[in-house]
Each structure stands twice: as structure tokens, then as C-alpha cells.
């Protein structure tokens, strides 16, 4: 990262948009030709429409969603929109790749089988919705859904997006900054949701780890990798280092383990 | 039909590459890197051009032109991709593709060599607020809409023009 790119980055402040869907904030930052104006607003509307549709189909909080009805065995997978099958297949792949720490079907609080594809849906949905923004000529963007994001930069020499990694012990602080030109950043942990995530192999909350951030190529996979690594508890860093990504594990005691390669010259 | 199969084989390669890309990494994987088929999938032509061996062109295993119901396997050449050698095979019947097999998949060791493209997050020590942080976006464990109000991300969004 040369000083010049840093200076350039400061010259153009991104134009920002915020809205809420799926119970979480969606933040968009754009820079370049269509960062503002009618085309930007139209693309942003398409993104939100896309995410609302995903919520309608996949939400486990809506009793009438396809996924809720599928969980209650009222309908079969064949009766769902094809995206449901796509996401379930991703879930199976994620289960295999995480050695079972990540599961779409797992025992619920009272032992009953539960269908919860939300660990796969978010990254997949945001990556898919971001396609509308890629249609804007000469425009870079960073689209975040509740802290997981897709970064897009047309010129590889342009300044990277600077992504702060939140301190899970104090959400007003950052523990690290990741520079991402084009790629994805996802973080999993309990900071904002309580003990929601469990190791599917034991049904228990993971031990020793507070959050895992992953910087990778695809948000679908970075999101899954962050969740799977977190579910590995004390083995989070060991597991994540087998993946082709970089990242950061923040432990319960406040120490951190960076994963990946050191910045080049 | 030939053109369609050629196009589909290229597409299959792209799909396979995209499917594999979570285990690779590197810079942007463009469609160009995946679109590696150029051979014309004419069963007759590939027979007559025999002897060219692996990688020279696609070939079929059963003639393939006997009748509308005859099944044929169309095997693509071994293609050297960015991630290693790859080869796919299509089974067609009555002008429809009935099966796709990946005969060779880019080997994982060649993918491992790609693991270097994302730099480590840079650790910061000081307490940072939204103004001094100089970041574009904040990644944290999933914010809910209510928790968001307290977050650094909200402060960043608030500062928008």
C-alpha cells in the first residue's frame, strides 16, 4: 500500500446509502461515475428488492416463508423456488468442508430437528444482489449486510476499500483494518446476537473464541468460512489456516491470531 | 447442435471453475480464464483427425450419429487451466445432455499455490472512533437493526453526504 493510493482514497469520499431488510442494516458505499444519481438509486432499489425477496423465501422468522414451511414438512424441496435447492446444496457443501461444525439441519434447543439455512443465505444473497451494482459503469462499491460485505473495484490500481474489523469486546473500537480491492469480508461471532452460533457436532456454543473475520474471494464462502471457523472454537485458527483466505481470530481473552500472508512490499 | 455442445462444454468448464473457486483464491477469476474450450465437437471430424491424442480435441466414445435415441459421450480435451489440468465429459442423448462428468479436476496442490492474494488484516492498537478510523465499512458479527444504532458502521453511514 503506497502513500499515493492512500492519498487518492482520501480524495473521494464514498456516497452512502442505508436501508433495512431481514432485520439487519444494509449499507452501501459507492465511488466513481454512478456513485450518485438516478442510475445509482435504481441499482440500489434493485439490490433491496432482491434482498426482500430472499427474506420472503428464506426467513426462519416468517412462519409463511418457503423455508419455514419446508422445515415443518408442509412442502417438499421441489415445491420451493429453485434458489432454495441451491442454498441447501451450498449448506451440504459447507457441512462437508467444515467437518460437520457447520450444519443447516441440526438439533434445536430441545433436541428437535431444526432447519436453519441462515448461515448460508446471507453471504449468498448479498453476493447475488451485488450483481445489480456491477452493471454501473466506472463505479466501485462496497455492499454490507449487517457487517458482511462484498467489495468491488474496477481498476486494480485504485485505492482498496478499507474495512475496519470491529472489536468484539467493544463494538465502538476496531481491532484491525483489512484492505480489499475486490473480494469479500465476513465476520462471525456472538457480539450482537448472543450465544446464537453453536458447534453442530456438539450443539454447544464454541469455546475460547469471540469472533472470526475472513477476507476472501466470494462472500458466500467467506461467510460460511467465518461461521465454520467460529464453530470450531479453540481450533478456529487451525481450521481457518487450511482455507485459501486471510482473516483474523479474536479470542475470549482479547488476544488475536491473524491468518494468511504478510503484506507484500 | 455442434455449436451448442461446444458452447455448453465451455460453460460446463466455467461452472466447474466457479464451483471450485472458493478453494482457490487469487485475483478476479474472469470468465475468460474458464472459457478454455475451443475444439469443435463433431464426432466424425474428431475420428478423422485421429492420432492427435489428449488435449488435441474432443472425442466421442460411440459414434454418436446413429439415430435420435443413441447416447453418446463427448469428451473434451484436457485443458490446462490456471489451477491445473481439467477435463469434462458430456453424455448426450437425442440432442439433449443427460450427464456431465468431470474427468479431471484441477489438483488441489496447484490451488494451494494461489493462496497468497489476500494480505493479513493490519492490527490497530488505539481506540478508534468513526472519524479517526479512516475506514469505509465495518465488519462485525452480524448486526441486527437495533444493535446497529450503537455501532461504528452507523456512525459512518450517518456521516454520508
Structure write-up:
- Chain A has 265 residues and is of the alpha+beta class.
- Chain A has helices at 3-11, 38-58, 66-71, 82-97, 118-129, 131-134, 219-231, 236-240; strands at 15-21, 24-32, 105-107, 113-115, 139-145, 148-152, 161-167, 170-180, 183-189, 209-216, 246-251, 256-259.
- In chain A, strand 1 and strand 2 (24-32) form a beta hairpin.
- Chain A starts with a helix and ends in a 6-residue tail after the last strand.
- Chain B contains seven helices and seven strands.
- The termini of chain B are far apart.
- Chain B has 161 residues and is an alpha+beta fold.
- The model of chain B is unreliable at 10-68 and 105-116 (pLDDT under 50).
- Helix content of chain B is 30%, strand content 21%.
- Chains A and B meet through strand 1, strand 2, strand 7, strand 8 and strand 9 of A and strand 6, strand 7, helix 6 and helix 7 of B.
Topology:
The complex is a heterodimer of chains A (265) and B (161).
Chain A: H1 3-11, E1 15-21, E2 24-32, H2 38-58, H3 66-71, H4 82-97, E3 105-107, E4 113-115, H5 118-129, H6 131-134, E5 139-145, E6 148-152, E7 161-167, E8 170-180, E9 183-189, E10 209-216, H7 219-231, H8 236-240, E11 246-251, E12 256-259
Antiparallel strand pairs in A: 1-2, 2-5, 3-4, 5-6, 6-9, 7-8, 9-10, 10-11, 11-12
Helix pairs in contact in A: 2-5, 4-5, 5-7
Chain B: H1 2-20, H2 31-34, H3 43-48, E1 59-60, E2 71-75, E3 79-81, E4 84-93, E5 96-104, H4 108-112, E6 122-123, H5 130-133, E7 137-139, H6 145-148, H7 152-158
Antiparallel strand pairs in B: 1-2, 2-4, 3-4, 4-5
